[in-house]
Design a protein that fits this description.
The structure is a homodimer of 198-residue chains. With 198 residues, the first copy, chain A, is of the alpha/beta class. Chain A is built from five helices and seven strands.
């Protein structure tokens, strides 16, 4: 069976990838299978650029197909920030609590109708001897005025999804995956992989 | 012969597309072949998102394969701005002179070593009955302290490409296409199209 390396060190993203790619005729590997492997710096200015860089680096190092994600939040009132810096917005990589508090602070006084935002997810699939395929999807929402819900991760407790009347952190994983940026991108990735495997 | 609609109203981009896609077994059409067709708003927060939106909209309206580009400049000292707003940075869509003057003003006093920037180009190819393929490429450079050169368009007179020791506006079209963000993206697009046409 062909192998696909899920090139992320983020356990939450890994779980969403596994949930949405299950049942494909592919052996899904994680980075744990490659102990010495270093991930490259995420220093591109776009989600797609960072995802491609990670997928290509891991594919090159392992010789296998590799899938990487880069995603984040673009807040309209902040001119698209935190954008590609979402995970390290408050300075420390992956400190969700600090990131959320900083976002609330930056939006302090901004009225509800001006708190629109998008979650964006870029997925890159690097295929040895072939090209890198890019997929990007987004989900519209708005930033709440306080943290709501215990599910999800990252900015989920602040991301209010209008149609559901809930934040992403108030949704079950299935509910969130149905509408989220990463859910949309991974479903399209699944279709792409099915075609590539034919 | 299969048709490909080049979904841009920008004559400079159109010329670069034609130069780099010539010789493919494809009839290249422009939007002039579809007088009533309206382009959608470029309201996404990413280059890839805008390119996909334009290509899909034109493919849907014409029933043909469509190729669209979204590109721009990300200046590190400005946190990635003007980004997806590059063409309307100073307020008026496509007013290059005003955009360049505003950029110089915003970087006033910023020393040479802190004026790094990237040109980014996302290309989307929407294929009826198939998916939308995304390609993204970037080119590193730095912003000069005054306008240099008469070639190119947009921010080219301010974009200094180290290896050549020139701004993009001081290069011939061939020289620029060899190293530019759009040149790189279009060469990858050409390979993609060759594969799709097989």
């Amino acid at each position: 069976m062909r192998k696909l390396v899920l090139a992320t060190g983020n356990r939450n993203k890994l779980q969403e990838m596994k949930d949405l790619l299950q049942g494909l005729p592919l052996e899904l590997l994680t980075l744990e299978a490659y102990p010495g492997l270093n991930m490259p710096a995420e220093d591109r200015t776009t989600f797609a650029g960072n995802a491609a860089k990670k997928a290509e680096s891991v594919s090159l190092a392992t010789g296998e197909m590799a899938l990487a994600d880069d995603s984040g939040l673009a807040v309209d009132a902040l001119g698209g920030r935190p954008g590609v810096h979402s995970a390290r917005y408050a300075g420390e990589e992956g400190n969700y609590e600090a990131n959320n508090l900083l976002l609330l602070k930056e939006l302090n006084g901004v009225p509800t109708e001006a708190r629109s935002a998008s979650f964006i997810c870029a997925i890159a699939v690097a295929v040895p001897g072939d090209q890198t395929y890019l997929i990007e999807a987004s989900c519209p929402g708005r930033i709440t005025e306080s943290l709501r819900g215990k599910g999800g991760f990252g900015y989920d407790p602040l991301f209010f999804f209008e149609e559901a009347g809930k934040t992403f952190a108030e949704m079950s994983p299935e509910e969130k995956n149905r509408v989220s940026h990463r859910g949309k991108a991974l479903r399209r990735t699944r279709i792409l992989l099915e075609r590539l495997l034919k």
